Amino acid sequence: MKATFPHLAHLDVVLEVLYPALGIEIVPPPPITKKTIEIGVKLAPQNACFPMKVTLGNFIEGIEKGADTIFMAGGVGPCRFGYYGQIQRIIIEDLGYNVNFILIDSPRYGWKNFFSSLKTMVGGKWSISRIHRAVRLAWNVLRYVEDLEKTSRLVRWKLKDPSQLDRLIEKSLKEVKNISSVAQLEGIRENTLLEISQLNTLKKNEPIKIGIVGEVYIAQEFRVNFNIEKLLGNMGVLVDNSVSTAEYVLNFFPFTRSREKEEAWKLAKPFLKRFVGGEGIDTVGSTIRYAQKSFDGVIHLYPFTCMPEAVAKSIVAGVGREYNIPILHLAIDEHAGEAGMITRVEAFVDVLEMRRQQKVREASCS
């Protein structure tokens, strides 16, 4: 079995630890490029969600590298994510590729199917202790990767040379892919965080603070959202991303939901009482949370034609007016261009800076 997977932020680091620990040979797809997107756009239905097109491109490129198995998460509900795997499997079969496409549905909708998929995944080598060790290691890697991303957002805005941070992160992630124990991971964590803390910083005033909300794939996948977190950080903006891969994994299982997600759902309830699929409720609740934490603005990232985020967008506009917080909506698909997005983001940051200066002048006059 040679398995490939779709990219999602740094999830490849986690899977390159998990799969070998389960005895699965891994064939990582190449990094997402213009070619990846072109493959997906050519093969997928025209009105399909952009993430489906990109992940389809990942699968095709993984197959061409020698993969014979694909693992893909499934789902149900108003979000069209539940259709991704089914449609992608049909497209790949129609192309004549001989691959085993395994859909892993959430155990929320039945433990029997989940365990059946898991057994297929490990090739019948059913060992609870082995699976537990592998999953525990992978979970710790995922939390470390997200801690690293969070640390990057917290320090990038004040660094003298942000490229040094990029090199440290790249080196750390490369080292993590070769670990086989939590102890090795902790050693890498300690060294990396120490090196980051020693980077040269500039003396700056209180930074503009921007929160990111939206659909999980577009908000997390930096190769698709034009690395918006790095763009903002290099502009001297302190960024926070409400979307988390670890939280998404937790929500995949029953009885597990993070404190942040519970809080976001409670905050959203006066504005959105029904589940609309995807991250719709989270988008509304997280926008309110950023307003309550005195963030200067919010950027809403979502795929063009995404139904849950289209619902959230109309509600978030009202939230912005009620809480007096500016919101920039960015819909991303295969037609989005980096230059246009950079222009819009830079203009948004300029507006936030002018608003802050206006507040300072008003405070000094009163």
Automatic annotation (TrEMBL):
Coiled-coil residue windows: none
Pfam families found in the cross-reference section: DUF2229
UniProt xrefs under Gene3D superfamilies: 3.40.50.11900
Limits of the DUF2229 domain: 18-72
Highest rank taxon of the organism: Bacteria
Protein name: DUF2229 domain-containing protein
